[in-house]
Amino acid sequence: MEKYFGESTPKLGFGLMRLPKSRGKIDIEQVKTMVDMYMAAGLNYFDTAYVYDGGESERAAKEALVDRYPRESYTLATKLCAWMGAHDEKSAKQQFYTSLERTGAGYFDYYLLHALQAGNYKTYDKYHIWDFVKDQKEKGLIKHWGFSFHASPDILDEILTAHPDAEFVQLQINYSDWENGSVMARENYEMARKHGKSIVVMEPVKGGALANPPSEVQIIFRQADPNASFASWAIRYAASLDGIITVLSGMSNIEQMRDNISYMKNFSPLDSDEQLAIKKAQEAINGIKAIPCTACHYCTDGCPMRIPIPEIFAARNKQLIWGKLKEGKSDYDNAIAAGGAASDCIACGQCENACPQQLKVIDILNSCKKSFGF
Ligand code: SF4
Ligand code: SF4
């Protein structure tokens, strides 16, 4: 393995996207405990974003981390989203200053242009954000910059050719999406490496889905190692790839933190038998037709019919993956109680432009409508 940027970074990053909540608010005391456990294990990479939780994630980073630990003892990443939470160049750039203020961090170790997708990546050119982050780096307010990416390898090639000084790329990589024709995890990974970029991995557990994979996969992993959690297979798989800076896990409670630390504190890559178990799991998953939604909710804010798209897809997946028809229908009824049903979709296409998985949301909602009756 050749030397690369970020090689010595601990391979488990603490993603602050799905922090624990109590009565609708971030449970800051639990977050503090999780931060303490994580830091005590010698780990130090924290990842938030301007848009996470309407800014509450960045504020939680301040309260649980920045106000309690010496600045040099951890690294903090956050992101600027030019197509969400901004309506012009000024408001997009303002996100950077707001993030500095919310976190109180003084500077960012890693700064990312957030969620570049086919329908929006040119907004970053239009608003001159590439030059803006380079200026902030020159001022010492950013140590390293890159971008998170949710599109096809040809677009990644185009962006990295136009911006060869990007220091890293954040990509969705997990064993179940490695050969997924929508996510194109392998192709994007290979494209980033072809350009010599190091990689931060996001969604290694596929929004939590691989922590509780289909029964066929559970049997494979149980046989290979009865003591390893299902999430551990997913995170170690991603961390075993060449050129990885860190693997982000959006931990939501103390138990997840404890489990992740148990195998990532002294990380060892998957051995050949373990890689074989992953291969069998990939084959098993490829045989199941489920909706590959990661519940990121990027699609929901702009839906004029207030359709709870990821909740509807989760309800349908309960039927498709587990065969639980009654429970899936009950989840569907609960999901649409405060919003629109699948049949309310007016096919405006907003959700499909926002979806990092490039899901054909309108078609899938249509099939959900047929399954659930409306
Ligand atoms: S296409 Fe349908 S689900 Fe998507 S945003 Fe429009 S109304 Fe909502
Ligand atoms: S449909 Fe797409 S944008 Fe919406 S939650 Fe699922 S993965 Fe995210």
Question: What does it look like?
Answer:
Helix 6 runs parallel beside helix 7 (185-194), helix 8 (215-224) packs antiparallel against helix 11 (272-286) and helix 12 (309-322) crosses helix 15. The chain is 43% helix and 13% strand. The chain folds into 2 domains: 12-286, Alpha-Beta Barrel (TIM Barrel); 309-372, no CATH class. The protein is of the alpha/beta class. Strand 8 (168-172), helix 7 and strand 9 (198-202) form a beta-alpha-beta unit. The relative contact order is 0.11. The strands form 2 sheets. The protein has an 8-stranded parallel barrel with strand order 1-4-5-6-7-8-9-10, surrounded by 5 helices. A two-stranded antiparallel sheet has the order 2-3. The chain is built from 15 helices and 10 strands. The protein is globular. It binds iron/sulfur cluster (2 copies). The site of one iron/sulfur cluster has 14 residues, from helix 12.
Indicate the topology:
Layout (H helix, E strand, L loop, with lengths): L11 E4 L5 E2 L2 E2 L1 H13 L4 E3 L8 H11 L8 E6 L8 H15 L4 E9 L5 H5 L2 H10 L3 E8 L3 H10 L5 E5 L12 H10 L3 E5 L12 H10 L5 H10 L4 E6 L4 H11 L7 H15 L22 H14 L2 H11 L14 H5 L6 H12 L2
Parallel strand pairs: 1-4, 1-10, 4-5, 5-6, 6-7, 7-8, 8-9, 9-10
Antiparallel strand pairs: 2-3
Helix pairs in contact: 1-2, 1-10, 6-7, 8-11, 9-10, 12-13, 12-15
The site of one iron/sulfur cluster has 15 residues, from α14 and α15.
Largest β-sheet summary: 8 strands, parallel, barrel
- Could you say how many structural domains there are in total? 2
Helix/strand class: alpha/beta
Shape: globular
Strands of the largest sheet, in order across it? Answer: 1-4-5-6-7-8-9-10
If classified by CATH, what would the architecture of the largest domain be?
A: Alpha-Beta Barrel
| CATH overall fold name of the largest domain | TIM Barrel
